Amino acid sequence: MSIVLLATVPTEAVLDGFLPAAHRLDHSVLLLTDSPGAWPSLGTEVRGCDVHDPRAVLDLVTQRKRPAAVFSNSDHLQVPAALVADYLGLPGKDWRAALRGKDKVLMRRALADAALDPVWACTLTAGEPLPADLPLPAVVKPRSGVASEDVYLASTVQEVATRVAEVGARQAGAPVLVEEYLDGPLHTLETLGDGHRLRVLGGFRTTLGAPPNFVEERLDWCPDLPGDIQQQVLNQVAALGVGFGACHTEFVLTAGRARLVEVNYRMIGDSCEFLLADLLGEQLFEQVLRLHLGEPLPPAGASQHGHARVDYPCADRSGVLVEAPDRMDLNGPVRLAYRPMRAVGERRQLTGTNRDYLGVVRAVGPDRGSVDRAVEEFLAEQTWRVAA
Predict the structure, then answer these.
(1) Are 356 and 350 within 8 A, CB to CB?
(2) What's the domain range around 291?
(3) CA 341 to CA 35: how far, in whole Å?
(4) Do 157 and 219 belong to one domain?
(5) Rounded Cα distance, 271 and 280, in Å
(6) Residue 149: what pLDDT?
(7) In whole angstroms, how large is the CA radius of gyration of the chain?
(8) 288 with 246: CB under 8 angstroms?
């Protein structure tokens, strides 16, 4: 039987993670995408489709033998994938929970209704009067954005108004979310669930670049959270209805409180999913697909005592990448992998988002000291150069 996989553009997670995992599970894949020309030859069937529209997906899928699963790892496609799976009577996420994860306004309202860490938030359009109780600094962002795109820290009323106008213009005039700035260290919590049980895989501490942007420049494995912080996060994602498949939750620690930033109802991305699988010594891509195939959550593997780290060399200007290291894997006490994320000769504008990443360095080793030394030595030995 086949697995229907909904996708937009090619990603490392799909190409090197989920597609090989599906084949190891002896399932063929029907890949539906709104960008069929962007995908390389995969040895699997690729069909063009408006994957944002569940009706278009169903129109294609119901012409065939009923699939074994419908799955997506895209932020943009969790709701349509959930709706299609539900229509076909297949295991999947509650579409309402998927929508709350995608729509940050609905997320804030759901948490406020559950009396779990309400956050000051409102939606505004360009030119609309700002609320009198607007907290400063404030964060301006699209209500359904991803990857820190169009997310800004604004320190003054005028700056808030300017950012609302800028973001709104790029979002086709849609209302923009403005919310209080959550101060404190940024963490992630990674979970897997089968709809009945939820397993915590661990989490990372995230290092951000300089404001006003929120570019994630580094992540360090940080599985041991203080006190009841982990339970606070789990209570909040439960209130959103999260409990099936993979989920990547970002939160800030403020005076003993876990305050959600966003919930990405899919696997952690930007190469961290491979790092996580390596660190845990588990076939995480297969585990996620098995959940969508209706299998129960497997027992947790043996506890891991190593350390892991991810770094993202970033462009510091618009221009052409003229020098950068090639893909490489270095094995030793610390397993270090480098993957380019932009080709030499490619020109791009600086965006202040993860689209500025030039590559990713991921490392796993026995302890933090050895991992940090290996990564720092690698970064010092390599050159990334962007020419205007």
Answers:
(1) yes
(2) 183-304
(3) 19
(4) no
(5) 15
(6) 86
(7) 21
(8) yes
